[in-house]
Amino acid sequence: MIQTILDALSYGGLYGLAALGIGLVFGVMRLVNFAHGELIAIGAYLLIISVPTLGLPVGIVIAVVGTAILALLMELGVFKRLRSAGPAVLLVASFGVSVFLQRIYEVVFGALPLSAQVAPWMNGVIEIAGTSVTRGSIVTIILALVLLGGMWFFIDRTTMGLQIRAASSDFQTARLLGVRSNRVIGAAFVFSGLLAAAVAFVAVTQRGSVDPLFGVNITILALVGTVIGGLGSLQGAALGGFLVGSTISLLNSFLGNYRVYTYTWLFILVIIVLLVRPGGLVSSKAARERV
Amino acid sequence: MSLLRASGVQAGYGKVDVLFNGHITVAPGELVGIVGPNGAGKSTFLGAMAGSVRATAGSIEFENQSIVGRKPEDIVRLGLSLVPEGRAIFSDLTVQENLRLGLTGRRSKAGAELAMEDAADLFPVLTTHCDRMAGMLSGGQQQQLAIARALVSEPKLLLLDEPSLGLAPSVIQDVFSVLNRIKQTGTAVVVVEQRAHLVMSIAARTLVMREGHVRATLTPEDVRDEAKLAEAYFGTGEDKA
User: What is the ipTM of this complex?
Assistant: First the structure.
């Protein structure tokens, strides 16, 4: 029972981090970045390749820095050139980037899964209140709490965070006040890259292998989370991601042998939520006022 | 020496030009009005000066430096600040956070605290509400916040787009008396207004715009000359551009 709750919390935290990464970029440039999954994948590749030879701490640094750099390259190489384009163009471009990177990974790393033990100690168990639980779920929950807390501090307390919030609610006015558009969008991409690397770490320790489509599933489900939470709201994105992740985890344990129906039930719930609250759970004031 | 000098400015949205021949000269510390009917291109002209609307032709010089094609975030750092129509405050940020955002466009970090205090002196009501969400303020308070937010960047030229829009008459008086005080601090002001009489009474000169052109320049004395006003506004006989 305790393990079930911890699993739900850790899955929730994982998807919350992924959804927050997507929500950050959506906020400042109204881009639904499907290529977020490929950021998660590169983080996982870098971990799997570097950790066995260089050790975990160095591997984590390489994965985090590498993922953030790729995120920034996406913005500089593709999205920056499409600044004046509409949301539909941006969406299709992000599909393009996503598929392009998947093929690149296939050429560079091969189409078959690469596997390595990144942090085997995370699969061990520890005793809590008389029941044994996996270390992985505890570590994931702590990691998610630390990162969500750190992101909250960054967004709510720093000048760059304030500028990101302003740009998310009204980019034109923010620029008139002197907010540098390229810097704010660049920062949002870098932070979404950092979050993708954290997601990659947790996911790769769970699965033990990485393939070119490693990040696709988690990205689609995290996107569902950002929509449920309310597009345009960062708290909403994190909350929506958390709910999707924990619901999947709970459905998996309660459905037992019928777990093939997990996603059926998940999306039934998603449909109900959206019917009741079409704007998402935390509908942003900015979005409301524009209506 | 003029602070701002624009001539032959053409600008619009997408492929459609709204402004065909905008010209204006503003001296330091001067208050200039722009009036005209809806769709005359007044807001577009202000947007072209602030860099939020792209000018397709003409010249705009701020302190003898061309600013055509420059980004709004760079223009504000030169000392030209626009308060857009409809106030455009960040309603889901606090009053304090809105003001802090205004500091972004300052040329130097020094004196930021003082600028915040000056803004608070000009609009005492903002100090009492500083931790409130800006969206909770009344219309008049939001307009004051939008002006204060532009002022904390200590602009040399403040552009205001229809500050009286949607405000009660008594509140409009407050806003305009503030404009007078801003002018007294040496900041030049260009104010676009629908209420011609109001703006002409405080402006050194008032430009009349119609159909994308600046059609006439009026002096404060013209405010009593209804015939001249009507002609400038609606155009009788042939137009002189």
Answer: 0.90
